[in-house]
Amino acid sequence: MTAAEHHIVPRQPPSSGAAGSSGSSGSAGTPGSPDSPGGDDGTPPHDGRRVMRRRLITLTIIVLLIGIPAGYLVISAGQSRRSGKDKEAEAAAQGLREDWPSGMQRRIFELPVPGNAVGVQYYETNNWKASRMYLKFRTTSAGLDRFLSGVGTGRAALETGKVTIGARDLKVTGWFFGPGVDWAGTVHKNKDPRPTQNITVNMTDPAAPVVYVVSAATP
Fold it and tell me: What pTM was computed for the model?
């Protein structure tokens, strides 16, 4: 048989079975199909866990941002109250200090202690009602005049036989204003928030008067 006599068989198309098989395998891997391993919304399980983890972290951060400052404020307020009470108790235990009050304390309580003062003692208390400076010193006659003038008053304001420092302040300081002493006192008042000074002077020795002062300032 010659080459021309050979019968040429045309190429056959793929069988429908193969196509169907291929289509079935493709549909099986389609996301969202009943056979897909994801959730009902088509989200893979590991993606869902990641979203929940992010939400949990965000919630934790929010709680920390709100809770930590609030807790700090509560603790700080408690510590401040305790600190204030501790300082006041410590000061009360120490009583009058044999030293000069600082320049700032003297300015705040308007107590111009004369430069020649000796035996200077002071004690400061503070609470929510008022701040007080207790001051005692010995000076000269001229020093007394300078002090009274610096406060805003003068020797003429001193009343003979008058003690202007009350029982409450005596209990705090331990001062004693008994008989047999030439006392003279005055109260120099100022408008708040400037302090008011209760001044009592031991004038038994006019050349060396001893000055007692309670300067109280209301916040």
Answer: 0.59
